[in-house]
Here is the input.
Amino acid sequence: MNWLDYPNFTESEFRCRHSGETKMHPDFMRRLQHLRSVYGRPMQVTSGYRSPQHPVEARKRQPGEHTSGRAVDIAVQGAEALRIIQLALGLGFTRFGVKQKGSGRFIHLGDSPDHPPGIWSY
Here is the structure.
């Protein structure tokens, strides 16, 4: 993957904290870069790729879309979270997780064809 194709992001932002891998899917990254361009503001990535052995994924019955490189968690809150979700819906993202209470507020954005469209809260 050529990270220069995604000028608003760096490879290190997406590195798995467990394995050090950055197996992001190019189609997802193109979509995310498009979202960032339309949004027009920085987006802080808190979680990108996760290996299947990552502790969060290892606890799941089936690994999530982070393991396919088709999901990201973005630190954002309030009206800006809603704005990103609205834009993401129009750009083909199909999965949205929302954590907007307490500390560590973020939204999960995904587009994995292997997972059904949906929205949930943490």
Summary: The domain at 8-114 is CATH 3.30.1380.10 (Muramoyl-pentapeptide Carboxypeptidase; domain 2). The chain has one domain: 8-114. The chain has a mean pLDDT of 96. The chain has three helices and five strands.
